[in-house]
Amino acid sequence: MPSVLLDFLLPAFVGTSAARPFSCSSQCRSRVGNAPVTIPAEVNLRLLEPPLKRKVASRVEPPQIIEVEGPLGKMSMAIPTYMTLDQNLVTRKAVLKIPDRKERKHREMWGTTRAYLQNHVLGVSEGHNAILRLVGVGFRASVELTATTVKPEYPGQQYVSLKVGYSHPIELGLPRGVKASTPQPTRILLEGTDKEAVNQFAAEIRMWRKPEPYKGKGIFVNGETIRLKAKKIK
Questions:
Q1: In angstroms, rounded to a whole number, what is the distance separating the alpha carbons of residues 23 and 210?
Q2: Burial zone of 91 (CB within 10 Å; 0-12 exposed, 13-18 middle, 19+ buried)
Q3: Three-state SS string across 114-133, please?
Q4: Of 13, 63, 95, 160, which one is least surrounded by beta carbons within 10 A?
Q5: Cα 184 from chain centre
Q6: Nearest CA-CA partner of 85 in 63, 59, 108
Q7: 207 contacts 198 by C-beta, under 8 angstroms
Q8: How do 170-173 and 64-70 pair as beta strands?
Q9: 132, 185 Cβ separation under 8 angstroms
Q10: Cα–Cα dist 149/169, whole Å
Q11: pLDDT confidence of 12, banded at 50, 70, 90?
Q12: pLDDT score of 212 more than 80
């Protein structure tokens, strides 16, 4: 085969690239991190500087702490040292900033940290909640002050008792900062300032009877739905 390519073969080799994207549209980047966080009038937000470095060398830098205090409680969260918090007391808005937007690690933590801060502000001002629906014959739930199968983790702990088709009731202790009530025997209302703790406990309750697709029975969280399948006919 000659070393020189023929003229009609040249267009096939010119302009080819191994990293050619599948889509021709431009990449749409998230702007969550750059969005300001609105701070209600009754919420106080302050940034605590990390403690002074010790004489002993350490590879890990201590993070900065943000304290959020409101009418429903007080919460704190850690943010990386390379982030800065700009708070405008007049407009009641706070913005997180990073030094280099081209750095991948900075961009990833930017939006995540902003979302956590927004959840904390809403938690101490309005609170977070989760509604669970028990669908099934004989499914019931109640909030009890004592339990027979679970030991208390802290003084005054309450328990959610579930009757969801087992031979014995399921007793689950409420985590700290989460309140539970049963407006109806088949409804459970969870409330708290920490969104992660509320949703995590709701997921633990749901694990005891996941929604099944044939009869539609189970424990549904918030607006969860399930598409029913056709029954198996022999």
A1: 38
A2: exposed
A3: HHHHHHHHHHHHCCEEEEEE
A4: 13
A5: 27
A6: 63
A7: no
A8: unpaired
A9: no
A10: 9
A11: low
A12: yes
Rounded (10°) CA dihedral 153, 155, 161, 167: 60
CA dihedral for 115, 95, 26, 16, sign (positive or negative)? negative
Q: How far apart are CA 85 and CA 39, in angstroms?
A: 13
Q: Give dist(CA 161, CA 111) in Å, integer.
A: 38
Q: At residue 39, what are phi and psi to the nearest 5 degrees?
A: -105, 120
pLDDT of residue 80: 87
Nearest to 139 by CA among 178, 193, 182: 182
pLDDT given at position 69: 94
Extract the tokens encoding 14: 């010119």
pLDDT band for position 124 (50/70/90)? very high
Check whether 58 has a pLDDT greater than 80: no
16 sits in the region (left: phi over 0; alpha: psi -120 to 50; else beta) called beta
- Tell me the pairing of strands 140-144 and 128-135: unpaired
Pull the structure tokens for residue 92. Answer: 């009641």
As given in the structure block, the two tokens for residue 11 are 């267009």
